[in-house]
Amino acid sequence: MKKIMVTGALGQIGSELILKLRRDYGSNQVIATDIRETEDEVVQSGPFELLDVTDGNRMLEIANQYQADTIIHLAALLSATAEAKPQLAWKINMDGLMNALEVARERKMQFFTPSSIGAFGPTTPKDNTPQDTIQRPTTMYGVNKVSGELLSDYYYQKFGVDARGLRFPGLISYATPPGGGTTDYAVQIYYDAILKGEYTSYIAKDTFMDMMYMPDALNAIINLMEADPSKLKHRNSFNVTAMSVDPEAIAAAIRKHIPAFKLDYNVDPVRQAIADSWPNSIDASAAAAEWGFKAEYDLDKMTVDMLDKLKEKLLKN
């Protein structure tokens, strides 16, 4: 990667990935794009262009303007939002992906887009979910992600596009607020622990899902993109994870630092149904074997960092 174009740059992953890429590759080497413009550091710290990813011509125009050799396509509607607006989710998630792949094909660019544990469904093995297994999701987001995995594979096999991807678990970050994902309770719980001393979870007790702290996710993207392509057997759908947790496990980790923290429940049936269709834990051994994936943060280490960073962010005034 030398000249990197990122879509969805102001989203949960993009807002942190852009800053890391600019530190690692140079500010002018990373072109951030999004459908909206803010005063955020992502916009101010290097090249930024407005882009609606359903406009393929504009996407190609930007790639040509900056002579980008890599496209990291992050723009998407997340699981809960996609379930509420399935037609819009298909338009953004699939038309946007097709446009990004077409730009990569035309310009012979390296390509990345994330998949998700949402690509699995209720008939998938729930524990230690294999890299290669049945994928019959029952959500629009899941359908989008399986379709995206297959489409990216197709562009690699048919057109030789160097397409790569990761199946992310829930991502936990202090930098951006929750954005419509089923696993976002695992972000909000830290905010509320600091601001309120209590949290009401929309996900039920004993609902285990895989999670990963954002620094591990960012490193995984970069390490995969820099990996030797000859060693990649599973190009567009590597399972990656750091921990399998339920709300009680996160609350217990928080109580080591905020002993009076209280956890209650008011289960949202829509998001609970989505969570119930996903694995309890997944097997990331293929990513470890093919390009050396390893997470640095477990639950306790992540909790210390989340609470420290959020206290600085939320209580600074």
Q: Characteristics of this structure?
A:
317 residues; alpha/beta; Rossmann fold; UDP-galactose 4-epimerase, domain 1; 2 domains; six-stranded parallel beta sheet; three-stranded parallel beta sheet; 14 strands; 15% strand; globular
Mean pLDDT: 95
Quickly give the structural class.
Answer: alpha/beta
The helical percent reads 40-55%
Number of domains: 2
Separation, N- and C-terminal Cα atoms: 40 Å
Topology, number of strands: 14
Low-confidence stretches: none
What's the topology here?
Blueprint: E1 4-7, H1 14-25, E2 30-34, H2 41-44, E3 48-50, H3 56-66, E4 70-73, H4 79-84, H5 86-107, E5 110-112, E6 115-116, H6 140-159, E7 162-164, E8 166-168, E9 170-172, H7 185-195, E10 198-201, E11 209-213, H8 214-226, E12 238-239, E13 243-245, H9 247-255, E14 262-265, H10 269-276, H11 285-291, H12 299-314
Parallel strand pairs: 1-2, 1-4, 2-3, 4-5, 5-7, 6-8, 8-12, 9-11, 10-14
Antiparallel strand pairs: 11-13
